[in-house]
Amino acid sequence: MSMIIAARPEIQPYSQTNKKNSADKAGTEFSGRVMKCVQAGGQKVMLNQDALMSYASPQTGESVNIYRAGNYTKEHPVYMIKGLDKDGKEFSQEIDARNIDPEYCSYNELMVLNLETGRTSPADYLHAAVVRDQAGIDSYFEQRDFMSVIEAVMQDHKKMGSWDSYLAYDQWMQSLLKITANR
User: Fold this and answer.
1) Residue 68: which region, alpha, beta or left (left: phi > 0; alpha: psi -120 to 50)?
2) Sequence-separated (6 or more) residues with CB below 8 Å from residue 124
3) What distance lies between CA 57 and its chain's CA centroid?
4) What is the DSSP string of 17-52?
5) How crowded is the C-beta side of 12, counted as CA atoms within 13 Å?
6) Where are the strands (E) in the chain, listed by range?
7) How far is Cα 55 from Cα 111, in angstroms, rounded to an integer?
8) How many other CB atoms are found less than 10 A from the CB of residue 81?
9) Which of 18, 80, 130, 148 is 20 to 30 Å from 173 at the Cα level?
10) pTM of the model as a whole
């Protein structure tokens, strides 16, 4: 009995594939490489790979890139956010982290506070996305009492006995309270 072994096609490692990374900056004033992504309904969002943090909403078409402003210092924590609003128009806004109150701020401002506290891991971003969803906001610019929403999410985890998640949200909330109390 003879066995026939078929040759397997050569598998190319990811780094050697011919995927294109879009660096199309047409019509923008953003520096660095900008990636355009087409979403459902033709919504386009812009995410800059050089930003400290980037996020986008396929529902609204909003996209936000957060940078430290040129005059940023530890004593003067100013950030610049740039992106596309829900109408597809470019925007740029300066945010001073010292003036953000997490009991009434926008999601964008909450993300600036996350950068100030150093809570920028994928898990930290996921926590913020869950809180944004629970807050019921339709735009990254809408303001809410995010501290109350974080507490409500914590209570849900407590009821479910999900203590790891409960403690993670508590640590996040404590870091927000600490940075805003030091003003």
Assistant:
1) beta
2) 114, 172
3) 10
4) S--------TT----S-EEEEE-GGG-EEEEETTSS
5) 6
6) 34-38, 44-48, 53-56, 63-68, 78-84, 90-96, 105-106, 143-144
7) 10
8) 23
9) 80
10) 0.75
* Location of structure tokens 């891991």: 121
Other beta carbons within 10 Å of 128: 21
Separation between Cα atoms, residue 12 and residue 138, nearest integer Å: 42
Tokens linked to 110? 């909450």
Backbone dihedral angles phi then psi of residue 90, each to the nearest 5 degrees: -70, 145
101-122 residue pLDDT tens: 999 999 999 999 999 999 888 8
Q: Over the chain, what is the mean pLDDT?
A: 81
Between these two residues, 38 and 146, which has the higher pLDDT value?
Answer: 146
Dig out the tokens for 18 from the structure. 């011919």
Distances (CA, A) of 53 to 40, 67, 81, 121: 23, 7, 10, 10
